[in-house]
Design goal:
- The structure holds two protein chains of two kinds.
- Chain A contains 13 helices and two strands.
- Chain A has a two-stranded antiparallel sheet.
- The radius of gyration of chain A is 20 Å and the shape is globular.
- Chain B is mainly alpha-helical.
- Chain B is rod-shaped and about 55 Å long.
- The chains are: A mainly alpha, B mainly alpha.
- At the A-B interface, helix 1, helix 4, helix 5, helix 10 and helix 11 of A face helix 1 of B.
Amino acid sequence: MLDSLLNALGGLGTSPEMLALFVGFGLVVGVLFGFFGMGGSFLVTPALLMLDYEPSVAVGSGMAFVFGTAVIATLKHHDLGQVDYKLGAIMITGTTIGIEAGRASVYYLESMGLAGGIISIAYVVLLGGVGAMVTRDALNSDGGGGIDHEAADKDLDEYEIPEIAKTIQQTVRIPPMVTLRGDVRVSAWVITAVAFATGLLSGFLGVGGGFIRMPAMIYAIGVPVPVAVGTDLFEIVFSGGLGSYLYGQGGGVNLGIVAPLLFGSALGARIGSAATAVVDADGIKIYFGGMLLIGAIAVGIGEIGSYVGSPTLELIGLVLVIGAAVVVAFAILYTTISSLRQKRHQGTTVTD
Amino acid sequence: MAGLEIPTWDPETALLIGTILLEAIVLYVGYGGLERLFGPYLMKLLVGGEANAR
């Protein structure tokens, strides 16, 4: 048993340079996750694909990383009372079936030799789509994309249910109906459908699915933002755990990748989360959207490089995807420290 | 649904996932402790003076 763990560890085969790279990348991903409440984790799988890991290892290890990150974040949200366990339990059922269907399709495509290409294309579409949406929102208004940090301070009853959610609640009244936190009453089938669709993406791409599930919970189910965030994380613990277990059985989880990534991201998430108390997220949201768009282009370039057999293009793709994440993480840190110094300077001036 | 598979009990994989779970809990507790111990000092170092952002 220990032998297999050491094999899975792969740590003995992971060079110090790669360990340092994974810790550093984990730190960057953690800062993004802690600050925006989403985003960083779905950069891991494409980066691993570009580092020439097998698609099942890239997706499996990406999912195991998401699982570890979700455990840490859920512990924090549980302390804040922002987890709806009833909603979480129903979501878990739908997501489990979705993940399994997604995972089966990865292995099926891998047996046909198409997995790497199709997963990369799906990433290009997904990152491009979400990136464009977040950038548009950031340019147009102060809403959309990521967590509304100020919203976390409001009472759950004070939240307005979005119009789309109200319509869904009034039209889809197939029993059993369930009452959720914040006095939301919705059909269990709506919750299950949302869970299945996002689980499918989760299993196929090795992502937590939070960046789709969270807006879906808010707009399709109508739960308050903090409850959506907390419950989503609670659900990722189970879906990510199960997904990692299934990939692990097929040898798809490499602890030599996951452990250093987690080591860096746990620290980064604390820094990113602390930064939200100082910096207005809206100002940086545009960088986040830009990062996703660059990530989409990078995966595309890497895939073309792999198709035409050009290592230079593959390297450019890798540098772009990691570089974009690093730039945004540094922008957050720089803005945070600058804001703190400015506040302190203002405080000193007032005192004088 | 075609291709669906019921997860079977595999102690080796369970150990692997358990290790990740344990690492996550240790990191949450460990970094939390480090933040309480060195957070104020680090803030002072970065910002200078008595910063009290968190």
